[in-house]
Specification:
single chain, 446 residues, alpha+beta, Chloramphenicol Acetyltransferase, 6-stranded mixed sheet, CAT-like_dom_sf, Plant_Fungal_Acyltransferase
Length: 446
Amino acid sequence: MAEVTYICKRTVVSSKPVQPGKSYPLSVLDRLMERSHLRIVYYFQTPKGRKLGEMTKKLRESMSETLTCFPAATGRLLKDQDGHWMIKCNDAGLRMVEARAKGSVEEWLESVDREKELMLIHWEEMFHKPYFWSTFYVQLTEFEEGGLAIGLSCFHLLADPTCATMFIKAWADTTLVGKMISPPFFHPLPPRRPGNKNLNRQPYTHLINYYSSIVEKTNSVTSTGFATIALVFPDPMVRACIAMARTTSAPDHPSPSPFQVLSGLFWVCISKVKGKGNGLIDMCICLDMRNVLGLDKGFFGNCTVYNNVQADYSGEDKLLSGATQAIEEVMAKMDIEGIMDLIEWLTSNDCKYPPLMNGCDLICGSLEEVDPYLATFEDGYAPIRVSYHVEPSAGAGQVLVLPWRRGEGEMSRVIMVTLPEDEMVRLLEDDLILRFCPTILMGTNK
């Protein structure tokens, strides 16, 4: 018998109809993500003695209430007069898959790998008639001996990881307390404020040039087998890594953030794995720009921006500090003016054939602004683990830096790494990574 048995697939609609004729345009940042999708899974323990199917029924009912505030999730895609995707809010619903898994959630997590985990996150590629295709899918998997997995997948065109996390949190709040604590906001990206326009300022060409180079590439998904691992770096080890990577001893110079130093660490180690002798492979960071643009955390839409990072070779003993400093410097330049430069350039240079944003360089993405462990569907049962996947796997690989469970230390982080299978084995043997004693949560047969 298979480890996971799929019982049924339903369509879940909102409990209140949407306003007739309502639609949402998609932004230039949305449209660039057309070739990607997100797959996320939350793992929960459950009360002992619960009848199978009971929690699934409860979650299905609360999902209908949640969807009243997320009309984009139940709508369908259409092209506008300019040939751009838009969301027709027609209450067509999202798809919900109900499943059962053998054993307990704890036993599952002891041996989970990429292939097994993706069995808990249903996804369907775009139907040849997009108007009949659901852009959001939820899979509820109850474990026969206790535990629950909630898998969410969605078209990246409509939502980034922050939106997806917000959606799950809203659903959890609706289930637990009967109301949505933080509803989403659907509105366009902000325009540049007229008073903020400095006529003597040069546009941020580094960022614009990077997007221009991506748009010009015709990359495709290869048949290379990819593996994904999840490593926990405890608070003391992250602090030790920060101390090693500090580029100056000046007391007024801020220390690098966990994202900056851990991205630098894996940039260095993956470069070695890929056979880069003296120096580092091409890498770009992916950051949520809501705070920079002054947007509310409830903004629903893509607000992630990619930017290329380059570091000069300064000797083997200074690779980590050099990589970290390069990331710090690029992030410091990604201010509101630079991001508005990019948005205006993308608006005036309409991209008819969206690129695969994760199809070339190594990607280091920050998910430090999300907190999936706040999603509590039952009192006393917070998630015990959460995984994020940005698909399809392509290019040089991907590193995602996530927060770890509350109570594990403010600096502790989970790193999810996706690389070609043959490179992953060598990465796990790297002396620099082993120096910081990470715990393997998900690996190649752990």
